[in-house]
Design goal:
Largest sheet: 5 strands, parallel
Number of domains: 2
CATH superfamily of the largest domain: HAD superfamily/HAD-like
Number of helices: 9
Distance between the termini: 14 Å
CATH class of the largest domain: Alpha Beta
Structural class: alpha/beta
Strand order of the largest sheet: 3-2-1-4-5
Helix content: 40-55%
Order of helices and strands: EHHHHHEHEHEHEH
Mean pLDDT: 94
């Protein structure tokens, strides 16, 4: 069985889409109706990369947010997020170039995000990246979102590749934990500006060099 990289799976928020601020704004807008707020420090250190349902559960444990309001707040947050996506999400040339070249080179491509499916689909459509993707995994497609590896394992299963044949591109601690636990190779980026064809190609090359040395 070949051990070369055959697939590249991307996180979405903070990797292909600069949406971390949108999620922060949307959730705080919803929470503000009840007098709650997540500070920017808390967002960056504790909440970044987690699904909204997990964030709400944390707020219930830590600050007594009424659990019976989770459904309402989650729905409102998703509505606010889609409003921001509609006005702010645009195609980015170096992302389109990277994915088009990877696709042309024969790599399978996927997205695995802790966002809900509608948000994933909307962002991928508006960024004009949907056409390059072979699989999309949202938090609605798994029972355990990141940092659990289930999402990435599901993506690899659908793509028909093994963990050692997969490169995952991630930007935050929870996502990196999930990718590492799934057994894949990982490219860690600071944000969407770092997601370039050169960076991905270099990581693929280094992963395959590592395997040859190990063999």
């Amino acid at each position: 069985m070949s051990r070369e990289i055959k697939a590249v799976v991307f996180d979405m928020d903070g990797v292909l889409i600069d949406a971390r601020e949108w999620h922060y704004e949307s959730l705080n807008r919803a929470l503000g109706l009840l007098g709650y707020e997540i500070t920017r420090y808390e967002h960056l250190t504790s909440y970044d990369g987690l699904p909204t349902k997990r964030k709400l559960r944390m707020l219930t444990v830590e600050r007594g947010l009424p659990e019976e309001l989770h459904g309402f707040l989650n729905s409102l947050k998703q509505q606010y997020t889609l409003e921001l996506v509609a006005t702010r999400c645009k195609p980015v040339f170096h992302h389109q170039y990277a994915l088009s070249q990877l696709k042309a080179a024969g790599y399978q491509l996927g997205v695995a995000s802790n966002s809900v499916r509608r948000t994933v689909e909307e962002m991928m459509e508006r960024s004009d990246l949907m056409r390059y993707l072979d699989v999309m995994i949202s938090n609605e497609d798994v029972s355990r979102p990141k940092p659990d590896p289930e999402m990435y394992l599901a993506a690899m299963e659908r793509l028909g590749v093994q963990p050692e044949e997969t490169l995952i591109v991630e930007d935050n601690e929870n996502g990196v934990k999930a990718a590492t636990a799934a057994g894949a190779r990982v490219l860690v980026v600071e944000g969407p500006d770092d997601v370039t064809l050169d960076a991905i190609s270099s990581r693929i090359a280094s992963a395959q060099t590592d395997r040859k040395v190990a063999a």
